[in-house]
Each structure stands twice: as structure tokens, then as C-alpha cells.
Amino acid sequence: MRERLIDEYHKTLGLDENLTPEFCARLKSRMRADHLLYGDREIGVALRPHLLTRTQYNILAGASEVLSGAFGKVASVLLSEPARMQTVGLTEREKKLALAEPGYSALTVTTRLDAFVQGHEVKFVEYNGENPSSLTDQVGLNKILLEVGAMRDIATRHSLTQFLPAERLLDSVLKTYREWGGSDLPNIAILDWTDLPTADEFVLLRDFLVSRGISTVICSPEQLEYEQGRLRFGEFPIDLVYKRVIINELLDRCSDSHPLISAYLAGDVCLVNSFRCKLVHKKACFELLTDEVNAGWFTPRERDVIHRTVPWTRRLAQRKTQYQGREVDLVEFVRKQSSQFVLKPNDDYGGRGVVFGERASVAEWEIALTRALDDDYVVQEKVDVRTESFPIFNECGWAMQPMYVDTNPFLFDGRVGGVMVRLSDSPVVNVTSGGGETGFFVIEGANQTVKQ
After folding, report:
1. Are 162 and 451 in contact (CB under 8 A)?
2. In sequence order, what E strands does 133-174 have?
3. φ and ψ at 329, to 5 degrees?
4. CA gap 64, 408 in Å, rounded
């Protein structure tokens, strides 16, 4: 059904005389007006949304939720045995903050898994344990796509489900705030550095929260003050910080006496996500999932999902390890079998520093390995992904192009509530690296309603 519907969609696009350069430029202008931007770039790049069947979505969501529980077990082990934290690469300062009680029980409130869905197969390649980006994009992108005739056509002939991640976020944040000890509605600060390319995303989230009656500001770490048990942004008292700033970047720039850190350690602010999220955000956490010696941590269901959906991952170092039941010298094995592996920084984002062995020459792979050994990297088994045709557009018009597409579920208190979809002509599928996004719907069947 999915393939037939997409084929019909593309045929309808091809017959639509209204898809002029002027129309495409108007869609770009709508995105600018609606804050659907990454820096100065409009984030939407396709005239078609990503579509999954209900079965595909349920497989993705079910595996994501099981895996979220497995990550929670990994974090519990690390918290009970703090010496283990160094195995995933936590610094001493990160370790100290992870051991501090956040005031609520959840390891993470909101996260995102990065995944590839092909047929009924799902592969997860990263876990964004810190507050994930692009949570507010889907609703706006779907709305803009409904201006396309082909989209309106399938919406009248098929039952489609779309999602409201910001609503799910708000429910989880308020639940967390009440558990932390807050009452009434919190004053919320969305916290990250100024002049970031994600600034428009913060505006959308602030406006959404304000529309729900929650006083919200956007501020940066250097604008915070902490006096007499109260964290503030100017005259604005802060009850809850929605932390979009990355922890290692905060610690690189700020001392332990920073107002946010002081208020958090004193229990005077609710921090979402808490500093404990770093335990599962490090990519080396995938090693703890895929190393056979840790199998006893997980239930049979969790072990099955890990085996089917998580690629073999190891923190790169001169050592021996197990690969498919046999002992290997890690560096030498990865050196010789380069086409099977990807190198990734243990704690970075935006696709920075990622090297695909199959795309590197022998000399380039050797340089990448040397650099990775001098830094903090993981090596991960390559996931085989295929491109899918999408109608890509700009102000000059549109054309069909093969694109890599990832389907990245948002989780709130461990439950999936929608996805982010990225498109790229490179297997490093990332908006920061030059890719874009598109809308997302689940195909339910043939009737006349677009569900929400």
C-alpha cells in the first residue's frame, strides 16, 4: 500500500501545473514566516512527506520503547557502580553532576533515537539523550505540505495520522515538575547559547508554551543569576530550565560555581533533562548494549530488540574485544575491515567527525583511525541503507532525487510521540551537515479523515 500511494503521489505531482517556481518560492517564504529555519536555511526540502504504514510505525515505536528501557538499565548500573562511568567516557565533572540527585525519578524526560526504517526492519544508530532538536518542526512542515495538491489529494482519500510532539513534551515536563515538588505552572527558561542556527526552534517552543498559559523565556547560560535560592533571568524567576545547551559545552565554558549548576545542586531548580542524561547520551553507551558480557542486564525481549536493531559498537582503543563470537584486536580488525565500519566522536553532534570506511581510501582511513585514537571515538558497524526518491524543491522548481532518509522517534518518559524525518544526499543524514527535513504521516487506510 505504501509504495502504491507514493507512486500515485509522484504521478499527481508530475501532472500538477501549479507547481511553478513561484509556488515553490511561496512555500519557502511560508517557512521563513513560520520560523521553520535552521540558521538562514528553510528546513523543508521536499514536496512530499515521509510516509509509514501503521505496521511500520508500530514496529519502530515498539522497538524504541523497549530500547529506552534498556538504556535506563545501563544508566542504573552506572549509577550503582560509578567507576564504570569512565567506560562510556564521562569526565570527572560530568560524573559528579550525574551522581547528584535531580529531584525526580526519570533518567530522561525527552529524548530522540536516530533510526533507519526499511520495510519492517529498524536500525538505531544514535541516542540523543540530551534534549533533542527539531521537536516543533513536524506540525509546521505538515501544514505547509498540505498546500501541495498531491498532499491534499491523498489526505482526502486516505486516513492519515500526524503527531503533536510539543503537546507530549508539555505533559511530560509538567508531570516531572510536579514530582520534583513544584506546584501550579512553572516559569520556564529555554536555555542555550545565543545566535545558534536552532534559534527559530526555540521561538516556536516558547510561543507554544506561552499559548498554553506558561510563562516562558529564551536565555543563555551567561544571562542567568542565582541568589537567595532563586535562579533568575533578569527579573524573571525560573522554576524549570528546559536545557537545550549541551552539557559538555556548558562545562567547557563555565565553572562549577555557575548559577545553573549551583541552583541544580542545591535543588532550587528543576532541570529537564537533568545532568544524568549524559550517561546514555554518550555513543559508547551502545557498547554496553551490544557487548555480550552485559546480556544479563536485560530481559529476553530487550536482548532480542538489541540484537535486531542496534549495530555492534565499541569505544575505540588499543584492546581486544568480541566480534560475532570471536576475539579480535579491535584497532587492527577495524583497520583491515574498513568497509564494514563507521567512526564517530563519542560525544558530538551534527555529523561532525563521522567517517565512513567504505567511502575512505586506505590512507584516509588510516589518518581517521589515528585521529580517533588520539581523541574519544567509537567504531560502529555500518548500517546498510538505501535511498528513496523524493521531490526536492527550491525557488527555481523541483525534481525527483534519491535521498537518504532517517526516521527518528521522539520519546517522552520512554514513550514514543511522533518522529523527526531528515533527508540528505549523503549517508550522514543531518541538518547541521547540510541536509533538510520533511513532514511525516502514518497511513491508516482509505477514508476521508486526516487524524491528529
Report:
1. yes
2. 159-161
3. -80, 110
4. 10
Residue pair 112/411 in contact by the 8 Å Cβ criterion: yes
For residues 201 and 136, the answer to whether their CB atoms sit within 8 Å is: yes
> Which of 250-264, 342-356, 393-407 has the least mean pLDDT?
342-356
- The answer to whether the pTM exceeds 0.90 is yes
What pLDDT shows up at residue 447? 67
Q: In what order do the strands lie in the sheet with 236-238?
A: 224-227, 230-233, 236-238
Most distant pair of Cα atoms in the chain: their distance = 66
Q: Which residue has the cell 487524524?
A: 451
What letter represents residue 53's amino acid? T
**pLDDT tens digits for range 395-442:** 999 999 999 999 999 999 999 999 999 999 887 776 666 689 999 999
Contact 165, 410 (CB under 8 A): yes
The residues that bridge with 341 in the sheet, in sequence order, are 381
Are 120 and 55 in contact by the 8 Å Cβ rule? The answer is yes
Which helix (H) or strand (E) segment is 422 a member of?
A: strand 415-424
Q: What is the pLDDT of residue 433?
A: 63
More confident site: 426 or 84: 84
pLDDT recorded at residue 451: 53
- Spatial separation of the C-alpha atoms in residues 399 and 452, rounded to whole Å: 30
Q: What average pLDDT does the segment 235-240 reach?
A: 98
Q: What's the CA gap between 306 and 99, in Å, rounded? A: 27
Chain-centroid distance of CA 353 in Å reads: 17
Q: What angle do CA 41, 136, 222 make, to 5 degrees?
A: 80
Q: Is the separation of the CB atoms in 248 and 347 below 8 Å?
A: yes
CA dist 158 and 448 (Å) reads: 6
Query: Could you tell me if 97 and 154 are in contact, meaning their C-beta atoms sit under 8 angstroms apart?
Result: no
